[in-house]
Write a structure and sequence with these properties.
Chain lengths: 87, 132
């Protein structure tokens, strides 16, 4: 009986695991060095509904490009191309 | 001389001919100080992401030019004085441009170096003497 219980637990554990696909940095893949603050279409992809900057743990953007993206978004916000906040 | 990107947001209430006169005035500041216009774009009327001075729309102008720092400072001063300019943003573009060119070169060099590293051909084994 004990054995069975153990087995079941193991099987249950296995179910919990699923293969997580490795996220790739969009800018590295497309070989974009310069994140353009005038390119609203690209930047908009990193702005969720609230208008915040999407964290790179979600988007998978590498740290170098996230920093560039951050300044680009902030510049775009200054001239009302992107919102500071929305609700 | 440095390369600059600038975006000017004009109020939508300004009449078109008045707007062009205003913009020409700004461009004259640049031209008089020996700045060289590289790119000139009119993005036109766009919806603002948030209201500025109770206005929901703005007329966007974008220029890229080479100018001295003092010239840009003077232009920005004039832009701030004008009531018809809702927003403006002037950013140096040469540093980023230089960096991106450098990075590109680096990557190309890396890509060029890679195919050279093909595995060495396996040494051909001496044929075994046929027995018999």
């Amino acid at each position: 009986m004990r054995r069975d219980f153990k087995k079941d637990k193991k099987a249950g554990n296995r179910k919990k695991f699923f293969v997580r696909r490795r996220k790739a940095c969009k800018f590295c893949v497309e070989k974009i060095e310069y994140v353009d603050w005038k390119d609203v279409k690209t930047l908009q992809g990193f702005i969720p509904e609230r208008g915040k900057i999407l964290p790179r743990r979600i988007s998978g953007v590498c740290s170098l490009h996230q920093r560039k993206l951050q300044t680009a978004i902030k510049r775009a916000r200054a001239i009302a191309l992107l919102p500071y906040a929305t609700d | 001389m440095r390369l600059y990107d600038i975006v000017v947001v004009l109020s939508p209430e300004v009449a078109p001919d008045q707007a062009t006169a205003l913009v020409d005035g700004f461009k004259k500041i640049l031209a008089d100080d020996g700045a060289q216009m590289k790119i000139e774009e009119i993005w036109g009327r766009r919806r603002l992401a948030y209201p500025i001075a109770k206005r929901r729309e703005g007329v966007y102008y974008y220029w890229q030019f080479e100018a001295k720092a003092e010239t840009v400072a003077e232009l920005e001063r004039k832009l701030r004085l004008s009531d018809d300019v809702l927003r403006h943003l002037a950013v140096r573009a040469d540093e980023e441009l230089k960096r991106s060119v450098k990075l590109k070169k680096k990557r190309e060099a890396k890509a060029a170096a890679k195919p050279k590293k093909t595995p060495a051909e396996p040494a051909s084994e001496p044929a075994e003497p046929a027995e018999g």
